[in-house]
Write a structure and sequence with these properties.
- The complex is a heterodimer of chains A (about 270) and B (about 100).
- Chain A is an alpha/beta fold and about 270 residues long.
- Chain A contains 11 helices and 8 strands.
- In chain A, helix 4 links the parallel strand 5 and strand 6.
- Chain A is globular and about 55 Å long.
- Chain B is mostly helical and about 100 residues long.
- Chain B has a single domain, classed as Non-ribosomal Peptide Synthetase Peptidyl Carrier Protein, Chain A (Orthogonal Bundle), CATH 1.10.1200.
- Helices cover about 55% and strands about 0% of the residues of chain B.
- Chain B is built from 5 helices and no strands.
- In chain B, helix 1 crosses helix 2 and helix 1 crosses helix 5.
- The longest helix of chain B is centred in the N-terminal third of the chain and has 16 residues.
- Classes of the chains: A alpha/beta (about 270), B mainly alpha (about 100).
- At the A-B interface, helix 1, helix 2 and helix 7 of A face helix 2, helix 3 and helix 4 of B.
């Protein structure tokens, strides 16, 4: 079931569920089926990112303990790319529609990387009854000046990508993966309202209202370390870890560490 | 009467799936070999590898416990995966099930 229709779009999804099969006898009298497995949904970052960054890092080990749901956010990966509708709120609407599609009405553990972090936070704010906990990696949310900063860096990334010379260079020098990535990113940035939508995001003023257990992890060299401090200061009970020497690409730079923290987090929050 | 699934058969299946996932854009000089790597040789995008794995599971079913296998690997291991590793894993998984099929 790779594609599902939700909130008017076709989403690429992956559902991973591992662990002992039913026939496995381990001498325990408890039926494995009677033990509820936690539900985990993972949300990736912007433009060049997609669900594969989870698939390659923590999704499979997590799937031995939990039912893991991955999807490509609107416009990303193999999900449909509408011309507009890239606000955080519209991304939250997508998540709600997907949870409904999957028939998940119990609270889920949300894992958010970068932009996926702000979507997770907004989901926990708008629909607190559907979120069990937040695990945020380098969460990137709107603060004063976010619009200009975010749009500025994305516009900079888009700048020149459509130039013939740049395309020629990419075709000659870049490998297949990089050329394809550049082409797709260019289309995304130039032909959709993504930059405008992000620029229009208002700074978040409701972090103190987040009610679920929250873990945030950032790299010490991250360009958005101020977000880490803000989460720690404002989100009630937020646990913060700063990883020395890592950048905003923390998930791939420190995938083993993130894997350990993620599994420990699920074990801990599930015990409640 | 369990049918033996050979590495050659799985390799051929993988070849067909690759063509289906990547299409004309497939980078390959000569036939797909056991030592062909997905990242270095085929320049497969990670999202394409996800699609390939999914089609493989649809073909061979739950006897191939891909989740458990992937869970043992670190990011670098997955990036370095070769066609042969996937083929061997599928063959071993199918052979390990008594009376399967």
């Amino acid at each position: 079931m790779p594609h599902v229709q939700a909130n008017g779009l076709s989403f690429h999804v992956q559902e991973l569920r591992g662990g002992p099969s039913e026939g496995t006898s381990n001498g325990s009298s408890d039926s494995p089926a009677a033990v509820a497995r936690p539900k985990v949904v993972m949300l990736h970052g912007l433009v060049i990112d997609n669900l594969s960054s989870w698939y390659y890092t923590i999704a499979h080990p997590m799937a031995l303990e939990a039912d893991v749901h991955l999807y490509d956010l609107r416009g990303h990966g193999r999900t449909e790319q509408p011309a507009s509708g890239y606000s955080v709120d519209e991304n939250v609407d997508d998540l709600v529609a997907l949870l409904d599609h999957w028939g998940i009405d119990e609270p889920v553990h949300l894992f958010g990387n970068s932009f996926g972090g702000v979507v997770s936070l907004a989901m926990a704010h708008r629909h607190p009854e559907r979120v069990a906990s937040l695990f945020l990696i380098e969460a990137h949310f709107a603060v004063e000046g976010w619009g200009e900063h975010m749009a500025g860096s994305l516009a900079l990334a888009a700048f020149g990508l459509d130039e013939d010379a740049v395309q020629d260079w990419l075709a000659e020098n870049a490998d297949r993966k990089l050329s394809r990535l550049a082409k797709r990113s260019e289309r995304f940035l130039m032909e959709t309202s993504l930059i405008d939508d992000l620029q229009a995001e208002k700074p978040i003023d409701w972090l103190a209202e987040i009610a679920c257990p929250t873990f945030a992890i950032y790299g010490s060299e991250s360009d958005i370390l101020d977000r880490a401090r803000e989460l720690e200061a404002k989100v009630p009970g937020c646990e913060l870890e700063i990883v020395p020497g890592s950048s905003h690409s923390l998930l791939t730079e420190e995938s083993n560490l993130i894997r350990e923290r993620a599994l420990a987090w699920i074990a801990r929050t599930q015990r409640g | 009467m369990g049918e033996e699934i050979t590495a050659e058969a799985v390799l051929a299946e993988l070849d067909a799936i690759l063509t289906e996932v990547v299409g004309d854009d497939l980078l390959l000089d000569g036939p797909l070999a056991m030592d062909t790597s997905f990242d270095e040789d085929l320049q497969l995008e990670s999202i394409e590898f996800v699609a390939l794995a999914e089609k493989l599971l649809i073909t061979y079913g739950e006897r191939v416990d891909f989740v458990a296998w992937m869970a043992t690997m670190e990011l670098d291991d997955i990036i370095a995966l070769t066609v042969g590793q996937v083929v061997d894993f599928v063959v071993e998984s199918l052979a390990a099930v008594p009376g399967g099929g």
